[in-house]
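Cross-posted from the bioinformatics board.
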Amino acid sequence: MVGRLHEEKVFKDPVHRYVHVRDKLIWDLIGATEFQRLRRIRQLGTSYVTFHGAEHSRFNHSLGVYEIMRRILEQFEQRISFAFLEEERLLCLSAALMHDIGHGPFSHSFEKVFHTDHEEWTRRILVGDTQVNRILRKVSPDFPHKVAAIIGKTYENPLIISLISSQIDADRMDYLLRDTYYTGTNYGFFDMERILRVLRPYENKVVVKHTGMHAVEDYIVARYQMYWQVYFHRVTRSAEVVLRKIFERARDLYWRGYKFRWEPVHFIPLFEQDITLEQYLDLDEPTVMFYMSEWCKEKDDILRDLSQRFMNRRLFKYAEYGERVGSVEWKQEIDELFREIGIDPTYYLGVDSPSDLPYDVYRSGEDGDKMPIYLLMPDGGLEELSKCSVIVESISGKRRYDHKLYYPLDFLEDGTRKPHVVREIKRRLRVQ
Amino acid sequence: MVGRLHEEKVFKDPVHRYVHVRDKLIWDLIGATEFQRLRRIRQLGTSYVTFHGAEHSRFNHSLGVYEIMRRILEQFEQRISFAFLEEERLLCLSAALMHDIGHGPFSHSFEKVFHTDHEEWTRRILVGDTQVNRILRKVSPDFPHKVAAIIGKTYENPLIISLISSQIDADRMDYLLRDTYYTGTNYGFFDMERILRVLRPYENKVVVKHTGMHAVEDYIVARYQMYWQVYFHRVTRSAEVVLRKIFERARDLYWRGYKFRWEPVHFIPLFEQDITLEQYLDLDEPTVMFYMSEWCKEKDDILRDLSQRFMNRRLFKYAEYGERVGSVEWKQEIDELFREIGIDPTYYLGVDSPSDLPYDVYRSGEDGDKMPIYLLMPDGGLEELSKCSVIVESISGKRRYDHKLYYPLDFLEDGTRKPHVVREIKRRLRVQ
Amino acid sequence: MVGRLHEEKVFKDPVHRYVHVRDKLIWDLIGATEFQRLRRIRQLGTSYVTFHGAEHSRFNHSLGVYEIMRRILEQFEQRISFAFLEEERLLCLSAALMHDIGHGPFSHSFEKVFHTDHEEWTRRILVGDTQVNRILRKVSPDFPHKVAAIIGKTYENPLIISLISSQIDADRMDYLLRDTYYTGTNYGFFDMERILRVLRPYENKVVVKHTGMHAVEDYIVARYQMYWQVYFHRVTRSAEVVLRKIFERARDLYWRGYKFRWEPVHFIPLFEQDITLEQYLDLDEPTVMFYMSEWCKEKDDILRDLSQRFMNRRLFKYAEYGERVGSVEWKQEIDELFREIGIDPTYYLGVDSPSDLPYDVYRSGEDGDKMPIYLLMPDGGLEELSKCSVIVESISGKRRYDHKLYYPLDFLEDGTRKPHVVREIKRRLRVQ
Amino acid sequence: MVGRLHEEKVFKDPVHRYVHVRDKLIWDLIGATEFQRLRRIRQLGTSYVTFHGAEHSRFNHSLGVYEIMRRILEQFEQRISFAFLEEERLLCLSAALMHDIGHGPFSHSFEKVFHTDHEEWTRRILVGDTQVNRILRKVSPDFPHKVAAIIGKTYENPLIISLISSQIDADRMDYLLRDTYYTGTNYGFFDMERILRVLRPYENKVVVKHTGMHAVEDYIVARYQMYWQVYFHRVTRSAEVVLRKIFERARDLYWRGYKFRWEPVHFIPLFEQDITLEQYLDLDEPTVMFYMSEWCKEKDDILRDLSQRFMNRRLFKYAEYGERVGSVEWKQEIDELFREIGIDPTYYLGVDSPSDLPYDVYRSGEDGDKMPIYLLMPDGGLEELSKCSVIVESISGKRRYDHKLYYPLDFLEDGTRKPHVVREIKRRLRVQ
């Protein structure tokens, strides 16, 4: 079972040209139900409303991360005759392929509203009663746990962890290139082939040969640009806010005993915070979109309106919120003004601060889960990247926030609201 | 209402870099519910099971066709000072944007099984009670009908029809480039910019300046390659066959009074061949996928098995069928053999002949709906392309068929069937 | 000496991204004087006057051919565990790198006028008293002769010959991609990575697995397009004609005892058809251009005028000549008319028929030096490509000629010539 | 004379796809002898020894700058209805095309050794007795002076100057994209189309709409990367040093009355610092390379050795020199040690400090000739870029030096030198 395929299989991939599969284990994992499910979960959640090309799935990305990992191991062997033992080689490849398997539909909104945790679900899928688990166990009984340990960053060999989760890991390299390709922006492009050539295993981590410093610098800037140009785009964030409000409204209606046109069977375990592995695996984006279509016809005004907004891209506008973040009163007053004109602020005023996202912009040396990048200097010593690069230094360690308050401008301007209250709201939100 | 936007809007597009919108009409059409619905229908149906990058929607493609049309008109103006009247300019742009609006989910399978016709639905959406209709009517009361007439190829000015539907129209140029980009293949690439430079309005059609002959030749070959490498790919076709069998099984069960776990509300109007515009617009791919997920748990063995096959990419294998096409007995004998080992051939044997598809490989001068391509020669006369190009001549007018018989090889080999019958089937299907 | 480099070296290459060098032999050959000289000879001769990007050298291309050969051998090893003996591996790589080393400046014009033969010079450089020879001899005393035998197609192992010279060899694959890249056209692009994956050694030749048929088809069309769009471009051919006339005039002046401003030391051995290896190696394009600059100031009207034409891109126009090719009288009458108005037809009327070029458009199965392409069919047999592909069939075996007569239209129209003769010439040449 | 062409002409350009020419003036300027001469001068001097693809000429680049300028003006017209008067439009286009016309072969080395100044020569070519001048004068008698004034930054309308020479001008945008393309690196890539969309004329300069901030940031980083990865590459710089030493040696020999094998006719005016316009225009890279080939056979050991080094890429190695820059004694001692082992430090020790180059890395607001970049903020005010971007701030205003000492390591190790002196030199230069 755990052997090489008789003949190599390939997938045509727009980003890496071809994804090469030579191990039966990998081929079987790709065919597993839980992995095929990633075809039904988009990589970039709501970004497609802004960048219409960004319709690619996590299936796409997961294959890409696997392929990068495969190339890293190949480079290590060819270039510096460094090879892992067979089981650790399979561990690296499996962990790369499986690292996102716990993601749900519109992950970020889901996690915020329903308090699910995709990393926890990844672990449960790997070690639970699943096809993926049965395939992994064929390598050895504790193989699924080892894969989970790598993804959970508790595995005994930190070198392998750093290939999967560091500031310059296979995951990040793939998503930058892939998201750049599908959005059609150029910001995330960097010379991956060059970087693969200069990665080196060094004691318990992966480091970068100093000659590759500028290539890595370019990668860090690519990452920085993608965050500000793509991932934190205001239209995308607005769609996220609306989506969260929809989920909150549906949940609140459920608890109040509201009678839905179509019972939200798939959502009830989430509403009740009591969900089995099987129920979780049933959740995908077509399911969410199916309910959303139904909710566009619900009699509840708020659920219906929000769902229609999401479906037809009639989103909220934003006001800068940075300086107000600490001021509870200011927000309460806005809430009050909204209530005065008949708009429920619970569902129609959304604060969004993208640095809250589980993505993190490069933070060198900071506590946290991602190791910094070290350069391997000519004298054989290591030097942390931001010490050598003024550009990286300039953007490292600085968490940037983008606090915005999202609200339905069209409601304010629909001509049915008290003009002086609307004027006051607009003044406070600095609507021009 | 029908004017220029205060400031041009753009969409970032990976294929054309930017899609430019300057007319309020176009901006409003893009925002219409019926157009946003195209985000939920994939451009290439089941191709994503073969080419994982091919997850792009018809929304994507429709914007692209619009942009190419916009550039053609711009070139006409800038290069040869040819301009349509304002209403005809808007007609060209609207028809380009709207040409696919009637497509349903997995269009080709749907049309085969449920006898829907996307061109008819396009017409109904344009002239029926829809947002799109209300927006178009702001130009003039008969504007929606004119758009429909262009798409239906009955409009009085054939020059405009040829921009939308000819052997080298905005539709084809976009889908070749776009499908190439998203699949990651290179076969569909050609130099569109060059072609746009050599298109010329000539009496009642668009022709190509003779200096562009080789560029057009390249486009025709690109098209030919895409059909054989991408659109007719056997894995994709196998997924189509399985999908059709699923729809047929669900329909047959419905008519037999089968009790579904989850009533197929959205499908019933299709099963009953009596569907309203509103019901049709409710159908999208998330809806189909939602039912498919449910059907994976149905008690009916056939519906459940087929649905699981589709979801988990456990598809049918194929046997060459070309020489057998005419032989009813041969097929009946195979059916019989399948029955003998307990496999229902109605749902487990599928004939597929992709040239049946409504796509047609370039056929010069043949009767049919697509005009041939004419070159504008130095002496001012016209010459049909295949007269000038040996390459085009070699592939024109020849309809190629790719008859295949699809069947579940895994069933035959599951060890539960009578060995001598299985052997006989394999012999006849030439399974190696 | 003949070993692996301590650390792999790479060249950044726009076409193949990186050229990888792991053998000391290859590294040393690249550094040899005779190979560095290829930096001073353009790959596409006079094409740069038409496509200003086409300024790349044969050095560029030779590295590319080497890299493709290296990848073919790597694929053979990785994919089907086929490996040559070490010496044959080095032979393949060396022959790929060296295959163009005998080229002189503006090769085609040179060979026509001075009857040099770059293949003969390649052989002399490999086996003569050169740095290249001394480096090759370190492998074994007869190694240089073996390299020459491969390039001369007399080597005992035809499999290796077919990697270097067949209808789908490393040389052609590189020049199509490279010339496409530098000219900025897209015609020569094809999916090389796919082709490398389907090449197979089969008895005494390289064949193509049948699954790669369409990729090879695409390559053949790419080649066809490049010939007609780039290599045979009329402006380029005109520059060739002018260049040949310059060389002829300079030679004729030399034999008449003309006193040059600057003695054409480097050309005299060519004029006298008696040239040593050292003298040949001294000839490069800067040398030719240096003389050309001087000739722009010569007192001889013809040499000066032609040189200025070449330098300042004031080239000849062309008349179609196809149907006249066989008619000696027609040409003699034109010559006579030119003489009547004081233009010497020897230097101002040039016939050009590009299929005379040592390039040949794909000819399947024809006698000659390039083997046809065979497909390896599922049943293990071989099938010649044009038997399977209607496109290839349509362009194979047909030699296309592009006969043109080039002449200085500006002279005819300078207002100093007898009007009735000019009129008659224009009528016969069909000048509009 | 000064009108539109009957039909637009295009050049195929790999970077901008097409260069469009609609004005007869521009067409004629491109055909002028002095402009065609730029075909014989490489854009990146000695970079081709490092990046073999970098063989493109200044002709290439000049067309590109013109095309960008044309697009900027087109955007201004289409997007914000801003148009220059006809003469100023032609001024912009002509200045863009002509801005590099004064460059000589291997410009930087030439200017260092022979104290020529390409800006001064540009002016002389524009206003002197040249074809270019005669063509420009057809617009108006003082038109050539106006073009020269724009390039010399003394023209009365600073807006036009800022289009040609600012921190984000047509010149820089072209060379980054072009040098990236031909070297095959990716560092210089940025989204030019986006930047062209956000440029705005604002009083007397060009500014950038604030929405384009990240695109400009990306451009600045691209520029920074190109300097450190490409323009200051050590192998390139080494070739520069060797080239300068060759010129110095040839000049010194001339003044000592040395009898050259081939009298350096073209160099004598440079050696004597007394050169006419005609003599200057005769200098191009083929001429320099021609002499270099001859010098490879000179009897003078130093000139011959240095020339062979340059021709065969046998360059100098480098030692870090940064901390020693100010120490005259340290350098004198190294010189002395070289003399002790028979190597003349005048020609075999070269200091190189690339920030001395006339390129300047982005310096915001510093005195000098390049204006900083201003963002046009939502409130209509301007903000200097580095105030808004931490990345730009991190690299602005900081001149980085890369002081290196280049020397022939192979000489030290040829086994003929006193070992203890060689050891001492290696110790001081820290050769490992």
